[in-house]
Amino acid sequence: MTTKLYLDGAWTDAGAGGTRDVISPHDQRVIATVAEGDADDATTAVLAARRAFDTGPWRTTTAKARGEVVRAIGDLVVEHLDEFARRETLDTGKPLADSVTDMHDIASVFHYYAGVADAHGGRVVDAPSPDVVSRVQREPVGVCTQISPWNYPLLQASWKLAPALAAGNTVVVKPSEQTPLTTLYLVELIDEHLDLPPGVVNLVLGAGAAVGQPLTSHPAVDLVSFTGGVATGRRIMAEAAATVKKIALELGGKNPNIVFADVDLDVAADHALTAVFLHAGQVCSAGARLLVQDEVHDALVQRIVDRLPEITLGDGFVDGVRSGPLISAEHRDKVESYVAIGLEEGANLAAGGSRPDDPALADGFYYLPTVFTDCTSKMRIVQEEVFGPVLTVERFRDEEQAVALANDTIYGLAAAVWTDDVSRAQRVANALRCGTVWINDFHPYFPQAEWGGYKQSGFGRELGVAGFEEYTETKHVYQNLRPGSAGWL
Ligand code: TXE
Hints:
The protein is α/β, with parallel strands linked by helices. The chain has 15 helices and 20 strands. The strands form five sheets. The protein has a seven-stranded mixed β-sheet with strand order 14-15-16-13-12-17-18, with helices on both faces. It has a six-stranded mixed β-sheet with strand order 9-8-7-10-11-19, sandwiched between helices. Strands 5-6-20 form a three-stranded antiparallel β-sheet, with no helix packed on it. α6 (181-193) links the parallel β8 (170-174) and β9 (201-203). α1 (39-55) packs parallel to α7 and α3 (81-92) packs across α4. The radius of gyration is 24 Å and the shape is globular. The N and C termini lie far apart (70 Å).
């Protein structure tokens, strides 16, 4: 297994010799020891990407050829899917079947952007004179640094890498220090199988605090794409401001799942469970806030609580396990502190609220699926992203109140509305201030449709055509076919 940094087309140890043990969240076993870079390594990566962009052939390669490279990366994911999935489960603890699904999604992202690469070259503009030819063309932005989190390590990296390469940029990818294995593997396969010029793809490993500054503030960087927590996002925005970089931020959410009384409650309960407890709630679009119409509140909560025992916690490699651990001891501390806050605030603990007592799970960072009822929108447990298996339930009276409650957080990533009334579904979808609204479903996404946040969930879009355009500049080229007097003097 390759464990080094990939700088300017070569695998190298960290300049200062640093290493990091990567820990399994299931049992705290050391699963790999990888290079731990620092700011000097990150600067080397940025300068390699700059050189490759400014002097190399990549930027001027045809869009079709770039699309073929991006397609080949998707093919590599498919060909090595089992190994990718195994590594993702080792790193994150998520069930293997979920990692397999992620890998199929990742391949789809590369395959989608392979087709987008040569489909958006620009347009001829209807100019103000017949003696003018005017066109608008799309060009790569330049050097892009791409910082991804630990919950969907390779998936998040692919949303950034595929469009950036398709558009002709050079990149420095920085996976979370907690989950570097699949990104390492992808770069290893790219290095082995594809003939990319040195410096087009660079990989930096290391803690955000150590390698982050050059990636977000070095003058040679043109664009920063970041997915992670809102506090880090604010810091990155400030760092990038001095040199006015383009930035795209996806900063999570506190996503409302609104259930009206006219739906099939078994179906709504089934999706409410997946919405919040998938991957132990460590999902930026998790449906962590359930808003239920008064008439069906008790019946829906009962259905949810009754089915919690079906969420088998355990080793992601064991068949039948539905949920793995939280990513780290620190993260479980955060989740536990929010449960304590919820209790102090007067929410009613209807289920969970502790670590499991199964001794087989004692070495992992497990936490029981937890449900709080009697919640109000003033509570921190309702307002702040817990990013764990914690559901808060609020009641509403009518459509107007449901929308007001749903919009009442600093976040705006995703939301769902459940109703059999098609007009109401559309009204609510239009009124919700967030980047994705599901009607009578929760969680589906696909590469053709844009993804991103309103409000403090961030800005910029990933996936879809907009996810490609993020990585392009727009240039207007105007030519006068009959140059003569300017007509001013
Ligand atoms: O994230 P960080 P953390 C939320 C979730 C979680 C909280 C904190 O609520 O509890 O964020 O998680 C890199 N310059 N989300 O601390 O710090 C870091 O190395 C440059 C939501 O793990 O945001 C990693 O690669 N980079 C989210 C990445 O940022 C820096 C997914 C994310 O880490 C940096 C994860 C710096 N100064 C957490 N500091 C989502 N949107 O899905 C850190 N990093």
